[in-house]
Design goal:
Helix content: 10-25%
Number of strands: 9
Strand content: 15-25%
Distance between the termini: 25 Å
Shape: globular
Largest sheet: 5 strands, antiparallel
Radius of gyration: 16 Å
Number of helices: 4
CATH class of the largest domain: Alpha Beta
């Protein structure tokens, strides 16, 4: 990897053939390795240095997998970029999204070198998407949501609902808003809803799964 290219950051292409699966079940060592990769990639991007992660010794990290990297500075969101599609090995997905979370999130200025010491990294490793037929299938605290209508799409990670104490209706409404649609879009024809699960872990918190992790998402 060389300089960070921000075009197409956070692209969330869909494959309707995907089906929700069990999480990878990463060990503490595997999670630590991913956090190290994310940290190194972020710091390299901020310092305008080239970075190419070494192939890890853990086979699970070489499996293609979607992931999001969330950055916080003093507990405030500082950047979040992710990929739904599993086109790259997980360790490369984490490296790319960490660099782009630091430099390419359009909601924020790029992270500076002075900020690095105060940045906490969190990783959400995603299951494939599962298209649902009814909102009754959604389990708040377990599922993240992706809502799509034409060119519009919006995603919220599973931990967003629990952090904000949202019920299912509120979770759906905010995901509609994230897609740039009206809050009741999920009730209308032509809207597709997907669910997914996530393994969520970070540098400065106990490593938990999305089902029992109450943290801020993006």
């Amino acid at each position: 990897m060389s300089k960070v290219r921000c075009e197409n950051s956070g692209h969330m292409g869909l494959d309707s053939e995907f089906a929700e699966e069990k999480k990878l079940g990463l060990s503490e060592a595997e999670r630590s390795a991913l956090l190290r990769i994310a940290r190194d990639a972020m710091e390299a991007a901020v310092c305008n240095k080239k970075y190419q992660p070494a192939v890890p010794k853990y086979s699970k990290l070489e499996k293609p997998c979607g992931a999001f990297v969330t950055l916080r500075e003093k507990e405030e969101l500082r950047g979040c970029i992710g990929y739904i599609e599993a086109h790259l090995p997980l360790f490369e997905t984490v490296a790319q999204t960490a660099m782009k979370a630091a430099m390419c999130d359009p909601r924020f200025e790029s992270v500076t070198q002075d900020e690095l010491k105060n940045i906490d990294v969190e990783i959400s490793v995603l299951s494939p998407l599962r298209k649902i037929k009814s909102t009754d299938e959604i389990v708040v605290g377990k599922h993240g949501l992706l809502i799509e209508k034409g060119y519009y799409h919006g995603l919220l990670l599973p931990q967003v609902a629990t952090e904000n104490n949202w019920d299912k209706e509120k979770f759906l409404e905010y995901t509609c808003m994230k897609a740039g649609l009206d809050t009741g879009c999920y009730k209308k024809a032509g809207v597709t809803i997907y669910v997914f699960t996530a393994e969520v872990f970070g540098e400065n918190k106990s490593q938990k799964n999305a089902e029992d992790d109450i943290v801020e998402g993006a």
